[in-house]
Amino acid sequence: MTAPTQLEEFLGLLCEELVCDDSRRPCFVTCDSASTFRLPALLERHGLPHIDVGISEALGLGLAAGLAAEGRTAFVAAFAAFGTLRGAEPLRTLIDGEKADVVLLGGMAGLSAGPDGVSHHALEDLAFFRPLDSTRVYTPSDAAACRWVVADLLSQPGPAYVRLARVPVPSWPGQDTDGPLRWLTPRTNGPVVCGYGPSLLAAAGAFGEAGLGVGVLEFRRCQPLDASALRGALGGTDQIVVLEEHRAGGGLADRLREALGDVPVHEMAVAASPGSGTYMDLLNECGLAGPRAVERVRSVLRPDSAV
């Protein structure tokens, strides 16, 4: 049996929670994306309503804002690239500006659209949401992270964006934690690599295999950040590297610089979309996984701080 993708894992957990809460009156809106998200059978099984608007992300998000105005929680399933780029105006004005109870489920985020190529890669989405401070931004990785995100997402109404990948994501070993931050390694006051999503798990695995002496801290929610909790998690380290599946500027690194102030943050992002290929091949090519990720991180650390 084929392992479920992260997207399928998240949607299954979300639908299970939604059917237990009649007060939300949920409705799903798709933009010719229902089959890509594997939604039809899932929604039918849970008795959840669904409207498809075709290839029109702005229309879908506008409709979702209207549903929210009528007291519903609307979930818009769209490719992350098209939901944010084509849906920018309603996201800004009708959803964030009105604090509407609308969740954009950004599928095939980052480089996970893989063979679909540059047009489908979403490497600017976090930058778009950075000034929209009414919108919560979630970046889950494995099943444990998806469970926490679903719980936090549904703990309060309001606009949100969930960055999802249509790739299988093995569960990270070790005990899970309750909160937006999770150590993938033992906690350390030495060098720390920060990141999010499936690509961070791939990088953490490569660090372990190479014996690279760094801590790895996962961000399940990138916005808002609790500066006090973040400083507490990072302790006294003065070596922070952000490895992110996003273009430089506007991503997690900028958010950390804003939250931490005087602590230097090294940003290692995607310089340019690498074209088409499998997800792991693209991560390796961009230096987000495998030996290239190890070398990128090692190159900015002090010689005495990591193997």
Biggest sheet strand order reads: 2-1-3-4-6-5-10
Straight-line N-to-C gap: 40 Å
Q: Tell me the Rg in angstroms.
A: 19 Å
Full CATH superfamily name of the largest domain = Thiamin diphosphate (ThDP)-binding fold, Pyr/PP domains
Question: Keywords, please?
Answer:
307 residues, alpha/beta, Rossmann fold, 2 domains, 7-stranded mixed beta sheet, 5-stranded mixed beta sheet, 12 strands, 18% strand, globular, Transketo_C/PFOR_II, Transketolase-like_Pyr-bd, 1-deoxy-D-xylulose-5-phosphate synthase, magnesium ion binding
Folded structure, characterized:
The chain is an alpha/beta fold and 307 residues long. The chain has 2 domains: 6-163, Thiamin diphosphate (ThDP)-binding fold, Pyr/PP domains (Rossmann fold), CATH 3.40.50; 181-300, Rossmann fold (3-Layer(aba) Sandwich). Helix content is 37%, strand content 18%. The chain is built from 12 helices and 12 strands. β11 (240-247), α10 and β12 form a beta-alpha-beta unit.
Which SSEs are present, and which pair or pack?
Layout: H1 6-18, E1 27-30, H2 40-46, E2 50-52, H3 57-69, E3 74-79, H4 80-85, H5 88-96, E4 102-107, H6 125-129, E5 136-138, H7 143-153, E6 160-163, E7 181-183, E8 192-195, H8 197-210, E9 215-219, E10 221-223, H9 227-234, E11 240-247, H10 252-260, E12 265-270, H11 279-285, H12 290-300
Parallel strand pairs: 1-2, 1-3, 3-4, 4-6, 5-6, 8-9, 8-11, 11-12
Antiparallel strand pairs: 5-10, 7-9
